[in-house]
């Protein structure tokens, strides 16, 4: 059974997107590789297709089977913390799935690997 990698980050205007993907994506691609690939595309649908395609190709090269390959990239533009139910942000997500059913083990990868401490964490 796969153990999910989970990161928690306070989203800020400097975050461009976040990734939610199954373990089938991360079997042969590191989290940083996925983030770098996602950042290289303007359209999240194109990024999903490229990452899913690369994952699928690597599965077939290194194994005689594939795992489920599911990825969602959510682009965030103009994120605002103006309050519950009010936001100036645009959120775009487009799922892309190759293979079997969605696996319950997912990873959340923030686009910036260095995160600022939460306000409650600061002395």
Automatic annotation (TrEMBL):
InterPro entries the record matches: PPM-type-like_dom_sf (IPR036457), PPM-type_phosphatase-like_dom (IPR001932)
Xref: Pfam families: PP2C
Organism: Gossypium raimondii (Peruvian cotton)
Name used for this protein in its record: PPM-type phosphatase domain-containing protein
Positions of the PPM-type phosphatase domain: 1-76
